[in-house]
Design goal:
Largest sheet: 9 strands, mixed
Helix content: 25-40%
């Protein structure tokens, strides 16, 4: 009887998690339950509490709602032959840019995610409104096609002629429609999406395997992931077959065999394809897809990432794994890449519930996400520069709309998506940020009160109308030394090592409280191939030395609205950071906290005294992340 109940709860958990993404998912579509160990809670189950994340989410809401829907729709209407008097947008949404329309897809996803996360009716209505207007454009075009550019770009793609990633843009629009349907409950969006899927099916049908392989050498976003999701949502196997046609075997095969052949590849082209492999494994159980996704995650996260958890330089992997010391520039760590690595991590974490993957989510959350939105206007960062003496180069509002503008709009709409995971038996607490979890299916509410990382105390309180038995699994961060845990004020003895979970399985009563003390310390994060080149960490935070704003003006702090290239470029030069002389590898020997100012430090015993702060807090000035450290004799 106990085993039967356990099996039922596992399936119930799966149905709960999956149906939150799509109300139409059926048990038949959910058969591979055994492939997933832990599930993220749906966005509507988590609410952020007062703190930096909630503030950033509010800035992003203003950014989204200040955009004029008619301007977002302008080139769709022009392409469909419908009247439009709106002013065209600039940057990558300009009438002469071949990626035009991609941001509107991101916009739909961001609105749907934010509405689900906050129950904001106005944001939900905005996304649905845009979907309604897109359906009119699709009807005017006929045949299911929908884009802000004509089908001629796809004709060029099939012929092997230059065309800037038309399937990439189609994927963003289709993903936005999918999210509007599944998160905002708009059935009209599903109808528009199915029309686009049928058009894609017809377009690819005449292509043999060799021709299709050539087509998908051009960046196509996450078409395979989207179509796998559509197959699960509708129960129609045709979309699974179509998804498989977008599986890029040239990249998957060496990864599945345990080989890193990523050098020379464009990072943000590749990662969404791997996310598709991960989703394909979850639906089909194909071990080849599992192995490709798993090896990719480990080789990139462990051998190709910077201290921030981000990866890529100039958008590509230019060196063998483990060789990064020469890969520092003003164009490191494309923000889209961080967004997609986090998305992949959530899949791989779900297969293993490995706390080390949750550590990665935490590191990227603080260093690759929270610091890449400008607090004044919500504009988003394309690159997070890690070469000393650069600064965060934001765009000009309404004149950028880079790929990262869209992916970061989504990231800041869903900042609570990785705080909690669950299985049938309990909750995994992965991020320490003020929030409330409402696990409706179990009648449990969990509140998290904290000012972490400014303060080391985290309080978790259980709310339940009746006693509830479940396991509360608390991540012991890899950076921690001695986490102190109390249950209802009583100290708990624990020998759980860092990088694992402390599991508290018991019958919980309303008002039960767990308190954690998470002491942080300074430690070095050296380059794998050059230990004298070191970043400094404090808990999960990357610290950066402030180098001032000399030579920076309003013009150099923002990428100009028109540029000869497609990506932002610096119009001023970096400056050198002073070297560090230290007696050993412990940065506490040359870095001391500023009394009375949380997370603020200053150098000591050096030629120059610099203020040092979390990288995520630094805007509109130069900084240094990787210091050249020389040992004293």
């Amino acid at each position: 009887m106990k085993l039967a109940r356990r099996a039922f709860l596992s399936m119930t958990a799966l149905v709960t998690a999956a149906s939150s993404l799509c109300p139409r998912l059926t048990l038949a579509a959910l058969a591979p339950a055994q492939r997933i160990r832990a599930y993220p809670f749906p966005l509507h189950a988590v609410r952020l509490g007062p703190g930096p994340a909630l503030e950033a989410l509010a800035v992003n809401r203003r950014f989204l709602m200040d955009l004029d829907p008619d301007r977002l729709l302008h080139m769709f209407r022009v392409t469909a032959g419908l009247p439009s008097s709106a002013q065209a947008l600039g940057g990558w949404e300009a009438p002469d840019n071949e990626l035009r329309g991609h941001f509107t897809g991101h916009y739909l996803s961001a609105c749907a995610q934010l509405a689900a996360h906050t129950d904001d009716a106005a944001v939900r209505a905005r996304g649905v409104q845009v979907c309604v207007e897109l359906a009119k454009c699709q009807a005017a075009l006929g045949g299911g096609y929908l884009s802000a550019f004509p089908e001629e770009l796809f004709t060029r793609l099939r012929a092997g002629q230059p065309a800037w990633a038309p399937f990439y843009t189609l994927h963003k629009i289709m993903a936005g429609l999918f999210d509007t349907h599944t998160l905002s409950g708009d059935r009209g969006a599903l109808g528009t999406l199915l029309g686009m899927a049928r058009w894609t099916e017809r377009w690819t049908q005449p292509l043999d395997a060799q021709q299709m392989a050539r087509v998908i050498e051009r960046e196509y976003g996450g078409m395979n992931e989207l179509l796998y999701n559509l197959a699960a949502a509708t129960g129609e196997p045709r979309w699974r077959s179509l998804a498989h046609r977008f599986d890029r075997e040239r990249v998957f095969a060496p990864l599945a065999a345990g080989r890193d052949e990523l050098q020379g590849l464009h990072a943000n082209t590749t990662i969404p394809q791997i996310i598709g492999a991960a989703r394909g494994y979850e639906l089909t159980g194909d071990p080849h897809l599992h192995d490709a996704a798993t090896h990719f995650w480990h080789t990139v996260a462990e051998r190709r990432t910077y201290c921030t958890g981000g990866t890529s330089n100039g958008e590509s992997w230019n060196t063998p794994p483990g060789v990064l010391a020469r890969e520092l520039s003003g164009y490191t760590e494309e923000s889209c890449v961080t967004y997609n690595m986090r998305k992949l991590t959530r899949h791989v974490y779900g297969w293993t519930a490995d706390a080390r993957l949750a550590d990665y989510l935490e590191r990227t959350y603080y260093n690759g996400i929270l610091g890449v939105q400008h607090p004044d206007d919500g504009d988003k960062l394309y690159y997070l520069p890690l070469q000393s003496g650069y600064w965060k180069l934001f765009g000009t509002p309404l004149h950028d709309f880079w790929c990262c503008t869209g992916s970061m709009a989504e990231s800041f709409a869903s900042l609570g998506d990785s705080i909690y995971f669950h299985d049938a038996d309990g909750v995994y607490v992965n991020l320490f940020t003020p929030s409330t979890l409402d696990w409706q299916e179990r009648g449990i509410r969990l509140t998290q009160e904290t000012r972490f990382p400014e303060d080391e105390t985290v309080r978790l309180r259980v709310h339940s109308s009746r006693p509830a038995r479940f396991a509360l699994r608390l991540r012991m961060p890899s950076w921690s030394r001695a986490v102190a845990v109390r249950l209802n004020g009583k100290a708990l003895a624990s020998d759980t090592p860092p990088g694992n979970y402390l599991s508290l399985a018991r019958s919980w009563r309303d008002g039960d409280e767990v308190t954690l003390q998470l002491p942080m310390h300074l430690y070095a994060a050296p380059m794998l191939d050059d230990p004298t080149l070191q970043a400094v960490m404090y808990g999960p935070l990357v610290l950066a030395g402030r180098l001032g704003s000399a030579g920076l003006t309003t013009a150099t702090l923002r990428a100009p609205p028109t540029q000869p290239r497609k990506v932002p470029e610096y119009t001023a030069e970096p400056i050198a950071a002073p070297p560090i002389i230290a007696p050993g590898d412990d940065p506490a020997s040359w870095l001391v906290p500023v009394p009375g100012r949380a997370l603020e430090f200053t150098t000591r015993g050096q030629r120059e005294t610099l203020a040092v702060s979390p990288l995520s807090r630094i805007f509109d000035e130069r900084y240094v992340v990787y210091w050249r450290v020389t040992r004293t004799a």
